[in-house]
Amino acid sequence: MSDNKNYGFTTTVLHNDRRKPIEHGSLHKPVHTSVTFGYEDARQLASVFQGKEPGFRYGRQGNPTVSALEDKVSKMEDGVATICFATGMGAIGALFQALLKAGDHVVSSSFLFGNTNSLWNTTAGQGVDVAFVDATDVANVEQALKPNTRMVFVETIANPRTQVADLARIGDLCRKHGILYVVDNTMTTPYLFRPKKVGAGLVVNALTKSIGGHGIALGGALTDTGLFDWAAYPNIAPNFRKLAPSAQGMAQVRAKALRDFGATLGPEAAHHIAVGAETLALRMERTCANALALASMLEADPRVAKVHYPGLVSHPQHALATELFRAPGSLFSFELKDGIDCFDYLNELKLAIPASNLGDTRTLVIPVAHTIFFEMGPERRASMGIAESLVRVSVGIEDTEDLLADFGDALNFVSKL
Ligand SMILES: *Cc1c(COP(=O)(O)O)cnc(C)c1O
Protein backbone atom coordinates (compact mmCIF):
# COMPACT_ATOMS: atom_id res chain seq x y z
CA MET A 1 0.00 0.00 0.00
CA SER A 2 2.10 2.87 -1.21
CA ASP A 3 -0.31 5.12 -3.07
CA ASN A 4 -0.76 8.75 -2.13
CA LYS A 5 -4.54 8.86 -2.10
CA ASN A 6 -6.31 10.95 0.46
CA TYR A 7 -8.19 8.35 2.46
CA GLY A 8 -10.88 8.94 5.09
CA PHE A 9 -10.27 8.97 8.83
CA THR A 10 -10.82 5.28 9.60
CA THR A 11 -9.17 3.95 6.42
CA THR A 12 -6.09 6.02 7.25
CA VAL A 13 -5.90 4.74 10.82
CA LEU A 14 -6.42 1.11 9.76
CA HIS A 15 -3.79 1.07 7.02
CA ASN A 16 -1.18 3.48 8.34
CA ASP A 17 1.19 0.84 9.77
CA ARG A 18 1.38 -0.86 6.37
CA ARG A 19 2.51 2.32 4.63
CA LYS A 20 6.00 1.33 5.75
CA PRO A 21 7.07 -2.30 5.25
CA ILE A 22 6.33 -4.46 8.31
CA GLU A 23 8.16 -7.69 9.19
CA HIS A 24 6.55 -10.86 7.67
CA GLY A 25 3.71 -8.84 6.15
CA SER A 26 2.27 -8.35 9.61
CA LEU A 27 -0.87 -6.18 9.49
CA HIS A 28 -0.17 -4.62 12.87
CA LYS A 29 3.11 -3.05 13.83
CA PRO A 30 4.55 -5.75 16.15
CA VAL A 31 5.16 -5.12 19.85
CA HIS A 32 8.91 -4.52 20.07
CA THR A 33 9.90 -5.03 23.68
CA SER A 34 13.64 -4.57 23.27
CA VAL A 35 14.97 -1.78 25.45
CA THR A 36 17.96 -1.12 23.23
CA PHE A 37 18.83 -1.42 19.57
CA GLY A 38 22.11 -2.87 18.31
CA TYR A 39 24.13 -2.00 15.20
CA GLU A 40 26.70 -4.14 13.42
CA ASP A 41 28.69 -1.07 12.49
CA ALA A 42 29.65 1.06 15.48
CA ARG A 43 29.91 4.09 13.19
CA GLN A 44 26.23 3.68 12.36
CA LEU A 45 25.40 3.67 16.08
CA ALA A 46 27.30 6.94 16.39
CA SER A 47 25.52 8.51 13.48
CA VAL A 48 22.10 7.48 14.90
CA PHE A 49 23.14 9.11 18.18
CA GLN A 50 24.15 12.25 16.33
CA GLY A 51 20.83 12.39 14.48
CA LYS A 52 22.58 11.99 11.11
CA GLU A 53 20.50 8.96 10.22
CA PRO A 54 17.18 7.64 11.53
CA GLY A 55 17.18 4.74 13.96
CA PHE A 56 16.39 3.71 17.50
CA ARG A 57 18.94 3.81 20.29
CA TYR A 58 17.38 3.39 23.72
CA GLY A 59 13.71 2.79 24.55
CA ARG A 60 13.21 5.84 26.73
CA GLN A 61 13.47 8.17 23.72
CA GLY A 62 11.82 5.99 21.11
CA ASN A 63 10.62 2.52 20.18
CA PRO A 64 9.32 1.17 16.83
CA THR A 65 5.86 0.24 18.19
CA VAL A 66 5.46 3.60 19.90
CA SER A 67 6.77 5.35 16.82
CA ALA A 68 4.09 3.66 14.66
CA LEU A 69 1.44 5.00 17.06
CA GLU A 70 3.02 8.47 16.96
CA ASP A 71 2.77 8.43 13.20
CA LYS A 72 -0.88 7.35 13.43
CA VAL A 73 -1.76 10.15 15.87
CA SER A 74 -0.02 12.66 13.57
CA LYS A 75 -2.22 11.45 10.70
CA MET A 76 -5.35 11.65 12.87
CA GLU A 77 -4.54 15.25 13.88
CA ASP A 78 -3.15 16.24 10.46
CA GLY A 79 0.04 17.18 12.32
CA VAL A 80 3.72 17.08 11.36
CA ALA A 81 5.05 15.18 14.40
CA THR A 82 3.78 13.48 17.55
CA ILE A 83 5.46 12.38 20.77
CA CYS A 84 3.74 9.80 22.96
CA PHE A 85 3.93 9.71 26.75
CA ALA A 86 3.09 7.21 29.48
CA THR A 87 -0.09 9.15 30.33
CA GLY A 88 -2.05 12.20 29.23
CA MET A 89 -0.61 14.06 32.23
CA GLY A 90 2.87 13.08 31.03
CA ALA A 91 2.10 14.92 27.78
CA ILE A 92 0.77 18.00 29.61
CA GLY A 93 3.65 17.93 32.11
CA ALA A 94 6.02 17.95 29.12
CA LEU A 95 4.80 21.45 28.24
CA PHE A 96 6.11 22.63 31.57
CA GLN A 97 9.30 20.57 31.64
CA ALA A 98 10.39 21.25 28.08
CA LEU A 99 8.92 24.57 27.01
CA LEU A 100 8.55 26.87 30.03
CA LYS A 101 11.08 28.63 32.23
CA ALA A 102 10.96 30.50 35.53
CA GLY A 103 9.59 33.98 34.85
CA ASP A 104 7.20 32.79 32.12
CA HIS A 105 3.47 33.39 32.10
CA VAL A 106 0.71 31.05 30.92
CA VAL A 107 -2.94 31.86 30.33
CA SER A 108 -5.12 28.82 30.94
CA SER A 109 -8.81 28.16 30.76
CA SER A 110 -10.16 27.88 34.30
CA PHE A 111 -12.45 25.06 33.16
CA LEU A 112 -9.98 22.22 33.31
CA PHE A 113 -9.43 18.57 33.93
CA GLY A 114 -8.69 18.45 37.69
CA ASN A 115 -5.12 17.17 37.43
CA THR A 116 -4.19 19.81 34.85
CA ASN A 117 -5.51 22.41 37.29
CA SER A 118 -3.31 20.85 39.95
CA LEU A 119 -0.27 20.85 37.63
CA TRP A 120 -0.68 24.57 36.89
CA ASN A 121 -0.79 25.21 40.63
CA THR A 122 2.45 23.25 41.06
CA THR A 123 4.19 25.33 38.39
CA ALA A 124 3.26 28.50 40.26
CA GLY A 125 5.65 27.45 43.05
CA GLN A 126 8.39 26.95 40.43
CA GLY A 127 8.32 30.37 38.87
CA VAL A 128 5.77 29.90 36.10
CA ASP A 129 2.74 32.06 36.70
CA VAL A 130 -0.62 30.85 35.43
CA ALA A 131 -3.63 33.12 34.96
CA PHE A 132 -6.92 31.21 34.96
CA VAL A 133 -9.62 32.78 32.80
CA ASP A 134 -13.10 31.98 31.54
CA ALA A 135 -12.02 30.91 28.05
CA THR A 136 -15.56 30.75 26.67
CA ASP A 137 -14.94 34.42 25.77
CA VAL A 138 -11.75 35.45 23.97
CA ALA A 139 -11.90 38.88 25.65
CA ASN A 140 -10.92 37.26 28.98
CA VAL A 141 -7.90 35.61 27.38
CA GLU A 142 -6.85 38.86 25.71
CA GLN A 143 -7.10 40.77 28.97
CA ALA A 144 -4.86 38.28 30.76
CA LEU A 145 -2.01 38.42 28.22
CA LYS A 146 1.30 39.86 29.38
CA PRO A 147 4.57 40.54 27.54
CA ASN A 148 5.95 37.28 29.02
CA THR A 149 2.94 35.10 28.14
CA ARG A 150 4.42 32.07 26.38
CA MET A 151 1.43 29.81 26.09
CA VAL A 152 -2.37 29.79 26.05
CA PHE A 153 -3.88 26.47 27.16
CA VAL A 154 -7.51 25.40 26.70
CA GLU A 155 -9.61 22.24 26.51
CA THR A 156 -12.09 21.88 23.64
CA ILE A 157 -15.03 20.77 25.76
CA ALA A 158 -14.17 21.14 29.42
CA ASN A 159 -14.46 18.13 31.66
CA PRO A 160 -16.87 17.89 33.57
CA ARG A 161 -19.09 20.96 33.02
CA THR A 162 -18.75 20.88 29.20
CA GLN A 163 -17.99 24.57 28.64
CA VAL A 164 -16.73 25.06 25.09
CA ALA A 165 -13.74 27.39 24.68
CA ASP A 166 -13.91 30.24 22.18
CA LEU A 167 -11.52 28.12 20.14
CA ALA A 168 -11.27 29.95 16.81
CA ARG A 169 -11.05 33.48 18.24
CA ILE A 170 -8.42 32.44 20.78
CA GLY A 171 -6.50 30.93 17.85
CA ASP A 172 -6.65 34.26 15.99
CA LEU A 173 -5.50 36.11 19.11
CA CYS A 174 -2.52 33.78 19.61
CA ARG A 175 -1.51 34.05 15.97
CA LYS A 176 -1.64 37.84 16.17
CA HIS A 177 0.66 37.87 19.23
CA GLY A 178 2.87 34.94 18.17
CA ILE A 179 1.91 32.97 21.30
CA LEU A 180 1.95 29.17 21.41
CA TYR A 181 -1.65 27.92 21.43
CA VAL A 182 -2.08 24.51 23.10
CA VAL A 183 -5.42 22.70 22.85
CA ASP A 184 -6.29 19.62 24.88
CA ASN A 185 -8.43 17.66 22.39
CA THR A 186 -9.14 14.68 24.67
CA MET A 187 -12.88 15.31 24.96
CA THR A 188 -13.48 15.75 21.26
CA THR A 189 -10.73 13.50 19.81
CA PRO A 190 -9.40 14.17 16.31
CA TYR A 191 -12.47 12.41 14.88
CA LEU A 192 -14.83 15.13 16.13
CA PHE A 193 -12.44 18.06 15.85
CA ARG A 194 -8.94 18.98 14.70
CA PRO A 195 -7.49 21.89 16.72
CA LYS A 196 -5.21 22.68 13.76
CA LYS A 197 -8.34 24.13 12.13
CA VAL A 198 -8.42 26.90 14.76
CA GLY A 199 -4.69 27.60 14.72
CA ALA A 200 -3.40 25.39 17.56
CA GLY A 201 0.38 24.92 17.51
CA LEU A 202 0.33 21.89 19.82
CA VAL A 203 -2.46 19.40 20.46
CA VAL A 204 -2.74 17.25 23.59
CA ASN A 205 -4.59 13.93 23.53
CA ALA A 206 -5.01 11.68 26.56
CA LEU A 207 -4.83 8.39 24.61
CA THR A 208 -6.13 6.65 27.74
CA LYS A 209 -9.58 8.00 26.99
CA SER A 210 -11.53 7.64 23.73
CA ILE A 211 -8.61 6.99 21.37
CA GLY A 212 -7.51 3.84 23.26
CA GLY A 213 -11.16 3.57 24.18
CA HIS A 214 -11.36 0.34 26.18
CA GLY A 215 -9.90 1.32 29.54
CA ILE A 216 -6.96 -1.09 29.25
CA ALA A 217 -3.98 1.21 28.66
CA LEU A 218 -2.75 4.61 29.81
CA GLY A 219 -1.12 6.94 27.31
CA GLY A 220 -0.81 10.53 26.13
CA ALA A 221 0.34 12.41 23.05
CA LEU A 222 1.55 15.83 22.03
CA THR A 223 1.18 16.69 18.34
CA ASP A 224 2.90 19.55 16.54
CA THR A 225 0.51 20.89 13.87
CA GLY A 226 3.31 22.70 12.08
CA LEU A 227 1.57 26.08 12.48
CA PHE A 228 3.73 27.54 15.24
CA ASP A 229 6.98 29.29 14.40
CA TRP A 230 9.53 27.72 16.77
CA ALA A 231 12.25 30.05 15.50
CA ALA A 232 10.40 32.85 17.33
CA TYR A 233 10.00 30.90 20.60
CA PRO A 234 12.45 32.27 23.16
CA ASN A 235 12.90 29.09 25.23
CA ILE A 236 14.67 26.91 22.66
CA ALA A 237 18.12 25.84 23.93
CA PRO A 238 21.13 26.56 21.66
CA ASN A 239 21.71 22.92 20.65
CA PHE A 240 18.15 22.67 19.24
CA ARG A 241 18.50 26.01 17.45
CA LYS A 242 20.90 24.22 15.08
CA LEU A 243 17.99 22.17 13.69
CA ALA A 244 15.50 23.28 11.04
CA PRO A 245 13.09 25.76 12.70
CA SER A 246 10.12 23.44 12.17
CA ALA A 247 11.86 20.63 14.12
CA GLN A 248 13.13 22.65 17.08
CA GLY A 249 10.09 22.45 19.35
CA MET A 250 9.50 18.71 19.19
CA ALA A 251 13.23 17.88 19.34
CA GLN A 252 13.44 19.83 22.58
CA VAL A 253 10.28 18.16 23.95
CA ARG A 254 11.62 14.68 23.11
CA ALA A 255 14.94 15.42 24.76
CA LYS A 256 13.89 17.43 27.78
CA ALA A 257 10.55 15.82 28.62
CA LEU A 258 10.99 12.25 27.41
CA ARG A 259 14.73 11.61 27.71
CA ASP A 260 15.33 13.67 30.85
CA PHE A 261 12.09 12.97 32.71
CA GLY A 262 11.27 9.52 31.37
CA ALA A 263 7.46 9.50 31.10
CA THR A 264 7.83 7.00 28.26
CA LEU A 265 4.92 5.07 26.76
CA GLY A 266 5.57 1.31 26.83
CA PRO A 267 5.26 -0.73 23.62
CA GLU A 268 2.48 -2.99 24.94
CA ALA A 269 0.37 0.03 25.88
CA ALA A 270 1.10 1.60 22.49
CA HIS A 271 -0.16 -1.58 20.81
CA HIS A 272 -3.40 -1.62 22.85
CA ILE A 273 -3.99 2.04 22.02
CA ALA A 274 -3.26 1.53 18.32
CA VAL A 275 -5.81 -1.31 18.15
CA GLY A 276 -8.36 0.81 20.01
CA ALA A 277 -7.82 3.73 17.63
CA GLU A 278 -8.99 1.60 14.70
CA THR A 279 -12.60 1.87 15.92
CA LEU A 280 -12.46 5.43 17.27
CA ALA A 281 -14.82 6.83 14.62
CA LEU A 282 -17.35 3.98 15.01
CA ARG A 283 -17.33 4.28 18.80
CA MET A 284 -17.63 8.08 18.76
CA GLU A 285 -20.67 7.91 16.46
CA ARG A 286 -22.35 5.55 18.90
CA THR A 287 -21.31 7.23 22.17
CA CYS A 288 -22.29 10.69 20.92
CA ALA A 289 -25.72 9.41 19.79
CA ASN A 290 -26.18 7.69 23.17
CA ALA A 291 -25.09 10.84 25.02
CA LEU A 292 -27.59 12.99 23.14
CA ALA A 293 -30.42 10.52 23.81
CA LEU A 294 -29.61 10.27 27.53
CA ALA A 295 -29.00 14.00 28.04
CA SER A 296 -32.27 14.83 26.26
CA MET A 297 -34.22 12.35 28.35
CA LEU A 298 -32.78 13.70 31.62
CA GLU A 299 -33.32 17.34 30.61
CA ALA A 300 -37.02 16.65 30.02
CA ASP A 301 -37.39 15.04 33.45
CA PRO A 302 -38.80 17.29 36.21
CA ARG A 303 -36.62 15.53 38.82
CA VAL A 304 -33.45 16.72 37.11
CA ALA A 305 -32.33 20.29 37.86
CA LYS A 306 -29.79 20.82 35.08
CA VAL A 307 -28.08 18.97 32.26
CA HIS A 308 -24.81 20.22 30.77
CA TYR A 309 -24.22 18.89 27.26
CA PRO A 310 -23.16 20.91 24.22
CA GLY A 311 -25.60 18.90 22.09
CA LEU A 312 -28.58 20.43 23.91
CA VAL A 313 -30.06 23.69 22.60
CA SER A 314 -30.06 24.95 26.22
CA HIS A 315 -26.24 24.77 26.40
CA PRO A 316 -24.67 28.27 26.28
CA GLN A 317 -22.19 27.24 23.54
CA HIS A 318 -24.54 24.95 21.60
CA ALA A 319 -24.20 26.98 18.39
CA LEU A 320 -20.42 27.13 18.66
CA ALA A 321 -20.15 23.38 19.34
CA THR A 322 -22.43 22.62 16.38
CA GLU A 323 -20.29 24.78 14.13
CA LEU A 324 -16.92 23.40 15.28
CA PHE A 325 -17.44 19.74 16.13
CA ARG A 326 -18.69 16.81 14.08
CA ALA A 327 -20.75 15.79 17.16
CA PRO A 328 -20.97 17.23 20.69
CA GLY A 329 -19.02 14.48 22.49
CA SER A 330 -19.66 11.45 24.70
CA LEU A 331 -19.63 13.21 28.04
CA PHE A 332 -22.28 15.19 29.87
CA SER A 333 -23.01 16.12 33.46
CA PHE A 334 -26.20 16.77 35.35
CA GLU A 335 -27.59 17.89 38.70
CA LEU A 336 -30.54 16.23 40.42
CA LYS A 337 -33.22 18.33 42.11
CA ASP A 338 -32.67 19.14 45.79
CA GLY A 339 -33.91 16.32 47.97
CA ILE A 340 -32.62 13.54 45.71
CA ASP A 341 -29.30 12.27 46.97
CA CYS A 342 -26.85 11.68 44.12
CA PHE A 343 -25.27 8.71 45.91
CA ASP A 344 -28.66 7.01 46.30
CA TYR A 345 -29.26 7.60 42.62
CA LEU A 346 -25.89 6.27 41.46
CA ASN A 347 -26.30 3.18 43.62
CA GLU A 348 -29.54 2.37 41.80
CA LEU A 349 -27.91 2.25 38.36
CA LYS A 350 -27.45 -1.32 37.14
CA LEU A 351 -25.35 -0.69 34.00
CA ALA A 352 -23.53 2.59 34.52
CA ILE A 353 -20.50 1.98 36.72
CA PRO A 354 -19.27 4.39 39.43
CA ALA A 355 -15.69 4.92 38.22
CA SER A 356 -13.39 7.76 37.28
CA ASN A 357 -12.22 7.03 33.75
CA LEU A 358 -13.92 8.44 30.66
CA GLY A 359 -14.04 7.54 26.99
CA ASP A 360 -14.48 3.84 27.86
CA THR A 361 -16.75 1.51 25.89
CA ARG A 362 -18.80 1.16 29.09
CA THR A 363 -20.86 3.96 30.62
CA LEU A 364 -19.15 5.38 33.71
CA VAL A 365 -20.61 7.78 36.30
CA ILE A 366 -18.98 9.79 39.06
CA PRO A 367 -20.14 12.28 41.73
CA VAL A 368 -17.65 14.99 40.78
CA ALA A 369 -17.45 17.22 43.88
CA HIS A 370 -16.89 14.24 46.17
CA THR A 371 -14.18 12.55 44.11
CA ILE A 372 -12.11 14.01 41.26
CA PHE A 373 -12.74 17.63 42.31
CA PHE A 374 -12.79 17.01 46.08
CA GLU A 375 -9.23 18.13 46.79
CA MET A 376 -9.59 21.61 45.26
CA GLY A 377 -12.23 22.65 47.81
CA PRO A 378 -15.66 24.30 47.54
CA GLU A 379 -14.50 27.77 46.42
CA ARG A 380 -12.52 26.68 43.37
CA ARG A 381 -15.30 24.19 42.56
CA ALA A 382 -17.85 26.99 42.62
CA SER A 383 -15.64 29.13 40.35
CA MET A 384 -15.56 26.24 37.87
CA GLY A 385 -19.33 25.83 38.01
CA ILE A 386 -19.18 22.48 39.79
CA ALA A 387 -22.32 21.96 41.90
CA GLU A 388 -22.00 19.67 44.93
CA SER A 389 -24.55 17.27 43.42
CA LEU A 390 -23.01 17.24 39.93
CA VAL A 391 -22.82 13.78 38.33
CA ARG A 392 -20.54 13.26 35.33
CA VAL A 393 -21.53 10.65 32.81
CA SER A 394 -19.06 9.23 30.30
CA VAL A 395 -21.36 7.49 27.86
CA GLY A 396 -20.38 4.12 26.44
CA ILE A 397 -21.46 2.07 23.42
CA GLU A 398 -24.23 0.10 25.16
CA ASP A 399 -27.57 -0.24 23.35
CA THR A 400 -29.40 3.06 23.65
CA GLU A 401 -32.66 1.61 25.04
CA ASP A 402 -30.77 -0.18 27.81
CA LEU A 403 -29.06 3.04 28.91
CA LEU A 404 -32.28 5.07 28.80
CA ALA A 405 -34.03 2.41 30.89
CA ASP A 406 -31.16 2.25 33.41
CA PHE A 407 -31.08 6.00 34.07
CA GLY A 408 -34.91 6.29 33.99
CA ASP A 409 -35.57 3.35 36.32
CA ALA A 410 -33.07 4.69 38.87
CA LEU A 411 -34.84 8.08 38.85
CA ASN A 412 -38.22 6.42 39.38
CA PHE A 413 -36.79 4.48 42.30
CA VAL A 414 -35.04 7.32 44.15
CA SER A 415 -37.85 9.82 43.68
CA LYS A 416 -40.07 7.43 45.68
CA LEU A 417 -37.59 7.23 48.62
C1 LIG B 1 -7.84 12.21 31.50
C2 LIG B 1 -7.47 13.51 30.94
C3 LIG B 1 -6.15 13.92 30.92
C4 LIG B 1 -5.03 13.10 31.51
O1 LIG B 1 -4.89 11.84 30.94
P1 LIG B 1 -4.25 10.62 31.79
O2 LIG B 1 -3.93 9.61 30.75
O3 LIG B 1 -5.28 10.16 32.77
O4 LIG B 1 -3.04 11.14 32.48
C5 LIG B 1 -5.87 15.16 30.38
N1 LIG B 1 -6.82 15.95 29.88
C6 LIG B 1 -8.12 15.58 29.87
C7 LIG B 1 -9.13 16.50 29.30
C8 LIG B 1 -8.49 14.35 30.41
O5 LIG B 1 -9.78 14.00 30.42
**Main pleated sheet:** 7 strands, mixed
- The assigned CATH architecture of the largest domain is 3-Layer(aba) Sandwich
Radius of gyration: 22 Å
Would you tell me the overall average pLDDT? 95
Cofactor: pyridoxal 5'-phosphate
Family: Belongs to the trans-sulfuration enzymes family.
Keywords: Pyridoxal phosphate
InterPro entries: Cys/Met-Metab_PyrdxlP-dep_enz, PyrdxlP-dep_Trfase, PyrdxlP-dep_Trfase_major, PyrdxlP-dep_Trfase_small
Give an overview of the whole structure:
The structure is a single chain. By secondary structure, the chain is of the alpha/beta class. It has two domains: 9-102 and 149-154 and 171-277, Type I PLP-dependent aspartate aminotransferase-like (Major domain) (Aspartate Aminotransferase, domain 2); 281-414, Aspartate Aminotransferase, domain 1 (Alpha-Beta Complex), CATH 3.90.1150.10. It is 38% helix and 14% strand. The chain has 16 helices and twelve strands. The strands form two sheets. A seven-stranded mixed sheet has the order 1-7-6-5-4-2-3, with helices on both faces. The longest helix has 20 residues, at 280-299. The N and C termini lie far apart (62 Å). The model has no long low-confidence stretch (mean pLDDT 95). The structure holds pyridoxal-5'-phosphate.
Give a short overview:
Its cofactor is pyridoxal 5'-phosphate. This protein has about 425 residues and is an alpha/beta fold. The chain folds into 2 domains: about 10-100 and about 150-155 and about 170-275, 3-Layer(aba) Sandwich (Aspartate Aminotransferase, domain 2); about 280-415, Alpha-Beta Complex (Aspartate Aminotransferase, domain 1), CATH 3.90.1150.
